[in-house]
Amino acid sequence: MRLRAAGRAEPEDVWLRYADPRRWPGWSPQIRAVHADRERLSAGMSGEVVSVFGVTAVFVVESVDDARWHWVWRVAVGPVRLRLSHRVLRRPGGSATELVVEGPAVALAAYAAPARWALGRLVRG
After folding, report:
1. Which of helix, strand or coil describes residue 57?
2. Mean pLDDT estimate for the chain
3. 53 CB-contact burial (10 Å; exposed 0-12 / middle 13-18 / buried 19+)
């Protein structure tokens, strides 16, 4: 599944919203809290994302490219495994973000609407 959102936020600001997991609940309304072993997004970082519904997902960050504003992580909720690839792009008047999610079709269908909402908030100026 590939999702994209565009907005007025500067791409550097969008990247900083990704790079600090403590900020994720501010733009991703389905996230209540993030508990990570590091304060800044980096390869090998691991932790848990707690949803507003109390569901906890464990994660490991696979790669981070600060220069290209791109990062990839693996997330598990019980037996469901997802691989998410995020990218921030510069565009006239602001930025865009792209998310590619790999996983079971049922999980992708359930995740699509909240992910679209969060991405729109991420790039909002």
Report:
1. strand
2. 97
3. exposed
Nearest CA to 63 out of 83, 78, 91 is that of: 83
SS3 state of residue 3? strand
Question: How much of the chain is in helix, strand and coil states, percent to nearest 5?
Answer: 30, 45, 25
Backbone dihedral region for residue 4 (phi beyond 0: left; psi -120 to 50: alpha; all else: beta): beta
Question: By C-alpha distance, which of 21, 4, 19, 11 is closest to 65?
Answer: 19
- Write phi, then psi, for 76 (nearest 5 degrees): -130, 130
Q: Tell me the per-residue pLDDT of 41-83, one tens digit each, with 9 for 90 and over.
A: 999 999 999 999 889 999 999 999 999 999 999 999 999 999 9
Give 21's DSSP letter: G
Which fold does the domain 2-123 belong to in CATH?
A: Alpha-D-Glucose-1,6-Bisphosphate; Chain A, domain 4 (3.30.530)
Residue with tokens 């550097």: 12
Q: Give the model confidence (pLDDT) of 97-109 as tens digits.
A: 999 999 999 999 9
